[in-house]
């Protein structure tokens, strides 16, 4: 294994691990706030109990996310020093703002966890809103860094002093807003469906539990609405990619030759050597119609770029197809759940729906992981698009396979510990709700 491959593998593993907790950290405070608002406005004691239980689980996941995020910040400097030297003046202020948002989130999460009986209910609810807002702000600043890497802006003229850098330019760059909206919707949808799947599973064993019914409804609202909006966001971000990163779009659609009115490709296996896609379903003129509303618009293919500048087409294409498939299935589940809720008002009695929610619970995070593969691998071979190659940014320190193997082992252990802790927490919640149901019936 080359040092470049080891560094990329370690970074990919760290990002793939951290993004799960980052997404949960964005969405869970909204779930908690929604449950607490229900208690404040309707006096629903089950909603109060739910907010308290969710906050304890969130604390576990937040702690792991903080650790894995800290590791990532060190890896940027240790594995990619040339990148930080070149990009530091542009993205340093963004990371500083992200750190401010993170510390605000951590402080108010502490107030939320330990302030149930120490501050007024209204102040406590407001502290939860600050946690939610801080999580969204933190995500915005980090995603803006990634958007800058995909389309660097605000650069000073060559040879000019760094004081001429426009440090605010990345904040107003259109790709930053497209990526942020897409990621936030993904985080809410993924977390909402994961929580809904957990409570659907618990409802199968305890169908009379009002606690789980309330949890399921809140989770489906928080996750279902973003799942329905996500295809619209995906359309906007695809149009932005077509303008700012045409090579990435060509890899996503496995478009090897520039065409007027190309087909939209569903599925298939892309072969960069032959320039063909096997076993795909094609929608005639679909890609041009989606991008510009014109069936005969020209879409740039990979033939317009030197072969050494091509992303790994097969990987990007498969990841894109997986992301789209998971997103569409979640949107369909949101429609099904909404229809059953409107017409029956008792979706907890529909066992087929509950089983389907359990099956789709991990789809949101599969889509997030696949989406980040599209974003990061689709930019290759550039670490800063058309400004610095990934191979130019890696540290010259040899033996990078050693920290890569070490961190792989540590992440596996940490994942096991998190799963064990969350399983214990969910089991305790389930036992508590069963006991309260029995006492209520008695």
Provide the helix percentage: over 70%
Note the main sheet: 2 strands, antiparallel
> How large is the share of residues in beta strands?
5-15%
Q: What's the helix count? A: 14
N-to-C SSE string, H for helix and E for strand: HHHHHHHHEEEHEHHHEEHH
General shape: globular
Please mark out the parts with pLDDT under 50 across 5 or more consecutive residues, or reply none: 437-442
> What's the β-strand tally?
6
Structural summary, described in words:
The chain has 14 helices and 6 strands. The chain has 442 residues and is mainly alpha-helical. Strands 1-4 form a two-stranded antiparallel ribbon. β5 and β6 (388-389) form a beta hairpin. α10 (313-343) runs antiparallel to α11. The longest helix is centred in the last third of the chain and has 41 residues, at 401-441. The termini are far apart.
Which properties best describe this structure?
74% helix, 14 helices, two-stranded antiparallel sheet, 442 residues, mainly alpha
Give a brief description.
The chain is mainly alpha-helical. It is built from 14 helices and 6 strands. Helix 3 runs antiparallel to helix 4, helix 6 packs antiparallel against helix 12 and helix 7 runs antiparallel to helix 10.
């Amino acid at each position: 294994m080359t040092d470049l491959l080891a560094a990329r593998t370690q970074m990919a593993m760290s990002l793939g691990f951290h993004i799960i907790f980052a997404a949960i950290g964005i969405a869970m405070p909204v779930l908690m706030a929604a449950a607490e608002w229900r208690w404040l406005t309707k006096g629903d004691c089950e909603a109060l109990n739910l907010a308290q239980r969710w906050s304890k689980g969130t604390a576990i996941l937040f702690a792991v996310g903080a650790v894995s995020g800290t590791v990532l910040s060190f890896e940027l400097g240790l594995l990619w020093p040339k990148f930080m030297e070149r990009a530091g003046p542009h993205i340093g202020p963004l990371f500083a703002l992200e750190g401010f948002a993170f510390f605000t989130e951590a402080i108010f999460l502490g107030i939320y966890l330990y302030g149930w009986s120490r501050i007024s209910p209204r102040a406590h609810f407001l502290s939860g809103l600050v946690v939610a807002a801080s999580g969204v702000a933190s995500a915005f600043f980090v995603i803006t860094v990634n958007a800058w890497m995909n389309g660097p802006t605000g650069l000073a003229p060559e040879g000019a002093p760094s004081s001429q850098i426009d440090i605010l330019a990345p904040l107003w760059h259109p790709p930053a807003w497209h990526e942020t909206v897409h990621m936030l919707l993904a985080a809410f949808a993924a977390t909402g469906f994961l929580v809904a799947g957990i409570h659907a599973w618990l409802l199968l064993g305890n169908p009379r539990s009002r606690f789980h019914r309330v949890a399921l409804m809140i989770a489906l609202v928080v996750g279902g609405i973003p799942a329905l909006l996500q295809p619209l966001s995906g359309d906007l971000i695809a149009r932005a990619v077509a303008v700012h990163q045409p090579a990435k779009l060509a890899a996503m659609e496995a478009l090897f030759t520039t065409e007027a009115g190309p087909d939209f490709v569903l599925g298939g296996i892309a072969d960069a050597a032959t320039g063909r896609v096997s076993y795909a379903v094609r929608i005639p003129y679909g890609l041009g119609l989606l991008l510009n509303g014109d069936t005969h618009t020209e879409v740039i293919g990979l033939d317009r770029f030197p072969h050494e500048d091509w992303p790994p087409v097969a990987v990007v294409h498969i990841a894109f197809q997986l992301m789209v498939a998971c997103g569409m299935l979640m949107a369909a589940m949101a429609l099904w759940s909404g229809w059953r809720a409107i017409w029956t008002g008792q979706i907890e009695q529909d066992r087929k729906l509950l089983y389907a929610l359990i099956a789709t619970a991990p789809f949101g995070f599969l889509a997030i992981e696949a989406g980040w593969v599209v974003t990061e691998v689709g930019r290759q071979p550039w670490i800063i698009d058309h400004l610095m190659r990934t191979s130019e940014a890696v540290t010259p320190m040899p033996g990078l396979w050693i920290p890569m193997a070490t961190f792989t082992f540590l992440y596996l252990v940490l994942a096991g510990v998190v799963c064990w802790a969350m399983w214990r927490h969910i089991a305790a919640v389930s036992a508590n709700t069963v006991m309260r149901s029995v006492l209520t019936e008695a």
